[in-house]
Specification:
This protein folds into two domains: 37-159, Sandwich (Jelly Rolls), CATH 2.60.120.380; 167-253, Immunoglobulins (Immunoglobulin-like), CATH 2.60.40.10. With 255 residues, the chain is mostly beta strands. It contains one helix and 17 strands.
Length: 255
């Protein structure tokens, strides 16, 4: 038996009774061990102000107790990037008790809803783009009657976005344009975007699956037309693809 809400100074009472009549006058041993449970929710945490602080890459456990119980967690994001939030039901839960499962909602620092998922009866995950700052994750039963006194596991994994790339040049050729940029460390590749307009209409024209790529030649273009280019670096990690901010736009008039 685990008492995740145990805190210094809090009193718990343990009642021991017979299960069958033949347990009368039987001798038993009782052992209580107190250990710090850093990977458990810290009640009361029913509001953002009282949220349990968590860290990226670690799994935390909790219980949705009475009907309507809400558990808040606080996650500090160090930089722009992406997080993957996963919630799963404990193997100790009865399927009938879990019912419609849990609802997970992610809020920004001002408690604006930025993402969410409900009906998590077994295991589900979702990802979202984030900026530097505080985010809150709320876990509750999808309905007041679901997941009452059921255990769950929650994790949030963060991947930092790559640095903003910089186009060094765009040179025109005969119906071609060659885009060159400076290499960024720690990425998996680059996306190249093109448009006939400076401020809108950009479409991805090439995915370069090499971290060492520093140029791309766009072919079969129309002579005499001006094209606008921008690029973005991408990085893969923890089941996510994270994209950098777009580079500044550079243009070229094709020969």
């Amino acid at each position: 038996m685990i008492l995740p809400y145990a805190k210094p100074g809090r009193v718990f009472y343990i009642q021991i009774g017979k299960y069958y009549s033949d347990a009368v006058k039987s001798v038993y041993d009782l052992k209580v061990v107190q250990k710090a449970a850093a990977n458990w929710e810290s009640e009361p945490n029913g509001t953002a102000k009282a949220a349990t602080s968590i860290k990226s890459g670690k799994t935390y456990h909790g219980i949705t107790g009475a009907r309507g119980d809400e558990d808040f967690y606080k996650l500090n994001i160090p930089a722009s990037g992406k997080i993957s939030v996963k919630l799963s039901s404990s193997d100790t839960n009865q399927i009938s008790d879990v019912g419609s499962g849990w609802e997970v909602v992610v809020y920004d620092r001002k408690l604006n809803t930025v993402a969410g998922l409900n009906g998590i009866a077994a295991e589900k995950a979702f990802s979202l783009d984030v900026k530097k700052g505080i985010y809150y994750i709320k876990v509750k039963g999808t309905y007041d009657s679901s997941a009452v006194f059921c255990r769950y596991a929650l994790s949030a994994n963060f991947v930092k976005a790559p640095a903003k790339p910089k186009i060094s040049s765009v040179k025109a050729g005969k119906r071609t344009a060659t885009v060159k940029w400076k290499k960024i460390q720690g990425v998996n590749g680059y996306y190249v975007y093109r448009s006939a307009f400076k401020k809108s209409g950009y479409k991805k024209v090439k995915t370069l699956k090499s971290a060492s790529a520093v140029s791309y030649t766009n072919k079969k273009l129309k002579s005499g037309r001006t094209y606008y280019y921008r690029i973005a670096a991408y990085k893969k990690g923890k089941g996510m693809t994270v994209i950098s901010p777009y580079s500044a736009v550079k243009s070229v008039k094709v020969k």
